[in-house]
Amino acid sequence: MAEYKLTADRYFEALKEDKLLGLKCNDCGKYTVPPKIVCQECSGSNIEVVEMKGEGVIKTYTVVRVPQEGQESQAPIPIALVTLDEGPCIMGRISNIAPDELSLDVIGRRVEVGHMVIPGDKYAHRDGVIPAFTVQ
Amino acid sequence: MRKVAVVGVGMTKFGKHEKTNMEMIAEASMDAINSSNITPKDIQALFVSNCLAGFEEGQLNMGGFVASELGIAGVPATRFEGACATGSMATRDAYNWVASGFYDIVLVAGTERALSMGTPLATRTFAMASDALYEGFCGLTFPGVFGLIANLYSKTYDVPMETLKESMATIAVKAHKNGANNPKAHFQKPITMEKALGAPMIADPLQLFDCCPFSDGGAALVLASEEVARKLSDTPVYIAGVGQSSAGNLGTQTYLPRLRSRELAAEQSYKMAGLEPKDIDVVELHDCFTIAEIVASEGLGFFEHGKGCQAALDGVTQMDGKIPINPSGGLKAKGHPIGATGAAQVVEIVEQLRGEADKRQVSGAEIGMTDTLGGDGGTLCNIILRR
């Protein structure tokens, strides 16, 4: 039976310790983060779990000022897409710059990946662990 | 594959409704049925488009109830879900079943009570259309998705934010101007550039008037094979091409600010229709946000990537421009009851191609197109129609 090499649970548990896990494809050499059942580049199954460097560059950002139900106390929420040095792109929150201080200049800045725990609401099946980006 | 036509259309007013989802979908359906010169009993299958009735009214499994409401319980009734693209997905599927020869007459019917949910719950449930496991917990909303894309657009194409903001406000003003000509639009009042640019920030850099509203509303279409359509209608509008594509979460979408799923779906529909972007006379595209209109206008091939911003500033997309975008007012002003949106876009194009669009008529329109985005690129549908 097909089985995940890296389950969501294991990925989140590692992220809670500030370890970013991913998958490396032994066929095409590309990385997949967060995990999938196959390589996201070539759909191949010859993949292995690796620890990522946990560093990358901000691709883009926004600040959510009108939040979803249940996240009122967290707003304004600074969110970014970060391209990891190994290639994949992940979403997380910027942790060390106040939302109102953010501008387009933050795009291209280097970050280190930590984590943040976001309590799940009544629709979520679990608490979330998300990447927290410390801008260098 | 047989030729397939839209023979009748129906649509409620969009906006705030006291009506239930069932009342809206049934009223739109009966208008579509009556204008097709058929009775409900002629319908062989139902393609029901609704996204969030489970949250709006505690209702799932709507298909059978809609069939029953129309007095045709027994016909296959399938409910589709593809976030904001739900209606176009249902329309494309309905098309496929008729084109293949399996059915001769089918009904596409959509409804949504998004406004009645209230902004906090609507924002939460719309956000469910993002990747709930790996991106949803970040707290991204749909304005947030397009905030990310707007900032990336500015950076990628080296368009100063001031210029982009002016272009986005121009699009908002256009939408409201067009909406003022549409008696079924959610918003029917013009706005000014000052009002758009002075509105509160929702998700940087998008302000209130960059965002479409949550709306209530219903829309429906009767599709028939060419042979049947010719008997039923003097003005059948043919579906010349359809396309649908998919994508993973935002992190996996390496083409951003381009949406690759749109480019793939559009390519399918142009190829099937044997047409090119320059052949399109009028388009109803997915302007859930003003920046979304810019990237859609590029993704559909009307402008080069990075040039849609300037095209909007140059007036090319206005009613009298080279490619009028969203004469109905679009999602921005006509409104966005997501389950009804795709069918409603087809309603507008059908009325345009029949020359029945009154004050918002694009003169001489013969070929039109719809474009509907589901989620943050996960589902994308295009439909090309012609007289």
Quaternary state reads heterodimer
Ends distance of chain B: 18 Å
Q: What's the name of the CATH homologous superfamily of the largest domain in chain B? A: Thiolase/Chalcone synthase
The chain-level mean pLDDT of chain B equals 97
Number of domains of chain B: 2
Q: Report Rg of chain B.
A: 19 Å
Order of helices and strands of chain A: HEEEEEEEE
| Pair with the biggest interface | A-B, 40 and 42 residues
CATH architecture name of the largest domain in chain B: 3-Layer(aba) Sandwich
Shape of chain A: globular
| Number of DSSP helical runs of chain A | 1
- Unreliable runs of chain B, pLDDT <50, ≥5 residues? none
Explained architecture:
The complex is a heterodimer of chains A (136) and B (387). Chain A has 136 residues and is mostly beta strands. In chain A, the strands form two sheets. Chain A has a five-stranded mixed beta barrel. In chain A, strands 2-1-3 form a three-stranded antiparallel beta sheet. In chain A, β5 and β6 form a beta hairpin. Chain A is globular and about 45 Å long. Chain B is globular, with a radius of gyration of 19 Å. The longest helix of chain B is centred in the middle third of the chain and has 19 residues. Chain B folds into two domains: 139 residues, Thiolase/Chalcone synthase (Peroxisomal Thiolase, Chain A, domain 1), CATH 3.40.47; 220 residues, Peroxisomal Thiolase, Chain A, domain 1. Helix content of chain B is 38%, strand content 18%. In chain B, 64% of the residues are buried. The chains are: A mainly beta (136), B alpha/beta (387). Chains A and B meet through β4, β5, β6 and β8 of A and α5, α6 and β5 of B.
